[in-house]
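Dear colleague,

As promised, here are the two records you asked about, laid out in our usual form so they can be pasted straight into your sheet.

NAME FIELD: protein one
SEQUENCE, THEN STRUCTURE:
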Amino acid sequence: MNAWLDRARAESIVKVTQRLGLTIGRDGKSFGPCPSCDRIRRSSEQSEKSGRVDRRGACVVLRGGDGVARWHCYTNGTGGCGAKGDVIDLAALVLCGRRWLSGDKEVEREVRLFFAGASPQPCPGFRQPRQVPSAQDPEHPRLSPIEVAEFLYGVCVPVVDVPEVTEFLVTRGISPTAIADRQLAFALRRGAEVPDWAKSGGMAWWQTGHQLIVPMFGVGPDGTLVPIGVRARAVRSCGDRPKSLAPKQKCSRGLVFAVGPHWLRDTGVRQLVTMPEGEIDALTLFLTSADKRGAVLGSISGSACREVAALIPRGSTVVLASHADPGGDAIAHAWRCVLPPIDLKVRRIAFERFGCAKADPGTATDRVEVIRPVAGEQGQ
């Protein structure tokens, strides 16, 4: 009688989370926003008092002693809820706005349809499904184009002017001169006065070793890509800090490393669009790719959004190049979800064909998927 429930509870919470439109954290074990309290990131009273931002998703996926995977909201700071449940509870909360209860026929109908393969749809009388905003983060604003320009051209300098950054690029086979000439990245010199958002733990990015600054782009009000973010990459040992840092308490969702002048000026022309994971692979791929006519859109967790996907001309060929780990899987899946499925198909190829399989030692991209137009959609 409840065979469908048993089958549904055996499904992966991570896969169900992605189908419901939520975002998997970079660790591959968390997601947000919480389907109960809407908090996007994990937080605690201690982190809120210190101003520290936890980049993991609000909810973590755990497997109990009985072998059943469950989720638990870990936002016990202001507005947190501590909600938890299994995959059925997750679907019921997202789809219908209320928990799964035996005998609730309306919720049961919607949840059963979802696990039968139906797309998530708003239910009459229920709230709209909870989904991560594809662009703005309600908790934190984005940087403005003026803030980005002032930082890149007023605080930073060309990468060739800072020895630590030059050496870092050279050791990874990247030409500092080529990066500087194309203004694909900048350097943060020691002693520079930086805004509060360019600090980590009260220390300026140059003090923590994060001196390679890569601009990030998002869709602006006019529907084109504009610089509204930056990413700081460590060029030397940074202790227990992440290798890359985003501006403190600023939104980076829906932003990409939009490198390649053709992407910015040839919108509407069918082209090759390659989406590597991370700033180093993005820079390397742009400089080493044999085909310079296309665009390179470097991605991080949260980059995939419908606004950017809508700018890719119909009939273009899209290459997804992400790390073979849970975070890379989540990024690739997120892009597949927002790219138009009726125009595209997927096949795997050897990444070595793109010339940067070992761009970033230790986290080198080693999986590529090519999404090509279906028959009849291929451009000239």
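NAME FIELD: protein two
SEQUENCE, THEN STRUCTURE:
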Amino acid sequence: MGFRFDSSGVVNEMTACRNVISKYEVGLRWGVLDPKEALPKFNEELKAAGMDTIIAEKQSQLDAFLAGQQ
């Protein structure tokens, strides 16, 4: 009955973003990487991997879902 994101249109972007997250997650979480240096690189790599495309697709689906609720 609630919103459910269909990621089938952005599978490649989702995979690429997961790979970027895996690359940085442990180092950022445990303080091995300096956040001042690593976070800008992390964000750049997420954008290059298609993060904005994923966000746009999810927003589009959410907007359509909400429009159908009225």
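A couple of things worth noting about protein two: The mean pLDDT is 96. The first helix runs from residue 11 to 29.

Best,
R.
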